[in-house]
């Protein structure tokens, strides 16, 4: 399978395969729904639902994209023809009225999702095959990723680039996607990493996400924007936690630790005997007792109570 995507309600999954078909599956049982979506004359590289879950768009090596009725599995209208190379990805706009496709012919095309007709001229600017294209959450921008080692942002209305291309060293780029708020972009690269970039400035945010041992093919944000999932040629997927600032990281670390240092351990490390108040507030052992809660209440009341006994 080349790709898999959930329906908006999470009840179905659509998969794309090099056997020239796409398939629908029941997300709860893992069983196929109906017959395969047949019609392409080349491998299917991607498949995605429309925002209302009623249609599916597929991208194929036969140089076309196709629309399908998600309920019946029947094709809708004629194939979207216009690319001169394999179509690698296809995605709906947030309002479901447009489709964007990316191709190995180095271009990106916009289509009217109702009529299947092209909208405007192809987006040209990449110097190598375009591996992915997707809309921003507000539908006003499109981000593309290419084997020319760059990511580009485009005005979805005019097809014109917005700003300079984002250069990813010398490694081909396989995928790029916006965060839910549209402020960041996550990029998957052949250099075995994913990277986060500021969508307004084109500057990197933090260090690369390192850990995969093979090419990273795709990366995407979670709906709340707090996590990223990456898929790699090393046969693994990884989930990464994101933090808005240092305090958010500190708060996460506090919640994650199973216990705090004992009084004896604090003394051994030359720390003050009083434990951090958050150890008591978050009921971390050994400060999870009612005695410690009373002690903290007295301290906050301006008193000077003795430290309770603790292991």
Key structural traits:
single chain; 311 residues; mainly beta; Methylamine Dehydrogenase, Chain H; 2 domains
Describe the structure.
With 311 residues, the chain is mainly beta. The chain folds into two domains: 3-244, Methylamine Dehydrogenase, Chain H; 248-300, no CATH class. The chain contains four helices and 23 strands. It has helices spanning 246-256, 263-268, 277-281, 290-300; strands at residues 3-6, 12-16, 21-26, 32-38, 44-49, 55-60, 64-69, 75-81, 87-92, 98-103, 107-112, 123-124, 130-135, 141-146, 150-155, 166-167, 173-178, 184-189, 193-198, 209-210, 216-221, 227-232, 237-241. The strands form six sheets. The protein has a four-stranded antiparallel sheet with strand order 1-2-3-4, with no helix packed on it. It has a four-stranded antiparallel sheet with strand order 5-6-7-8, with no helix packed on it. The chain has a four-stranded antiparallel sheet with strand order 9-10-11-12, with no helix packed on it. Strand 7 (64-69) and strand 8 (75-81) form a beta hairpin. The longest helix is centred in the last third of the chain and has 11 residues, at 246-256. It is elongated and about 80 Å long. The mean pLDDT is 91.
> Strand sequence of the main sheet, in spatial order?
1-2-3-4
What would the CATH topology of the largest domain be? Methylamine Dehydrogenase, Chain H
CATH class of the largest domain: Mainly Beta
What are the secondary-structure elements, in order, as H or E? EEEEEEEEEEEEEEEEEEEEEEEHHHH
Name the shape in a single word. Answer: elongated
Assigned CATH architecture of the largest domain: 7 Propeller
Task: Quote the beta fraction.
Answer: 35-45%
Total beta-strand segments: 23
Mean pLDDT value = 91
Measured between the Cα atoms of the first and last residue, the distance is: 55 Å
Relative helix content: 10-25%
Radius of gyration: 25 Å
Total of helices: 4
Q: Which secondary-structure class do the elements indicate? A: mainly beta
Major sheet summary line: 4 strands, antiparallel
CATH homology superfamily name of the largest domain: YVTN repeat-like/Quinoprotein amine dehydrogenase
* Regions with little confidence, pLDDT below 50 for 5+ residues: none
């Amino acid at each position: 399978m080349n790709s898999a995507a959930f329906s908006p309600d999470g009840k179905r999954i659509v998969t794309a395969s090099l056997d020239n078909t796409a398939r629908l599956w029941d997300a709860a049982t893992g069983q196929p729904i109906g017959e395969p979506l047949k019609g392409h004359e080349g491998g299917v590289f991607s498949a995605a639902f429309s925002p209302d879950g009623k249609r599916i768009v597929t991208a194929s090596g036969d140089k076309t994209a196709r629309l399908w009725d998600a309920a019946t599995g029947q094709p809708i209208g004629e194939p979207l023809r216009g690319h001169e190379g394999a179509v690698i990805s296809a995605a709906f706009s947030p309002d479901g009225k447009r489709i964007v496709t990316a191709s190995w012919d180095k271009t990106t095309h916009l289509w009217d999702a109702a009529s299947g007709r092209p909208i405007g001229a192809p987006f040209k600017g990449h110097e190598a095959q375009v591996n992915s294209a997707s809309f921003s959450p507000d539908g006003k921008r499109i981000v593309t990723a290419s084997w020319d080692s760059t990511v580009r942002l485009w005005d979805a209305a005019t097809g014109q680039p917005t700003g300079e291309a984002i250069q990813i060293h010398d490694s081909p780029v396989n995928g790029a996607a916006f965060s839910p708020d549209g402020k960041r972009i996550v990029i998957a690269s052949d250099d075995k990493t994913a990277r986060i970039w500021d969508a307004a400035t084109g500057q990197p945010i933090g260090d690369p996400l390192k850990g995969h041992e093979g090419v990273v093919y795709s990366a995407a944000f979670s709906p709340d924007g707090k996590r990223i999932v990456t898929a790699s040629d090393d046969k693994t997927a990884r989930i990464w936690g994101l933090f808005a600032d240092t305090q958010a990281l500190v708060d996460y670390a506090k919640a994650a630790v199973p216990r705090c240092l004992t009084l004896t351990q604090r003394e051994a490390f030359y720390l003050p005997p009083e434990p951090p108040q958050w150890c008591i507030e978050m009921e971390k052992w050994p400060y999870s007792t009612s005695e410690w809660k009373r002690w903290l209440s007295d301290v906050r009341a301006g008193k000077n109570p003795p430290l309770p006994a603790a292991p």
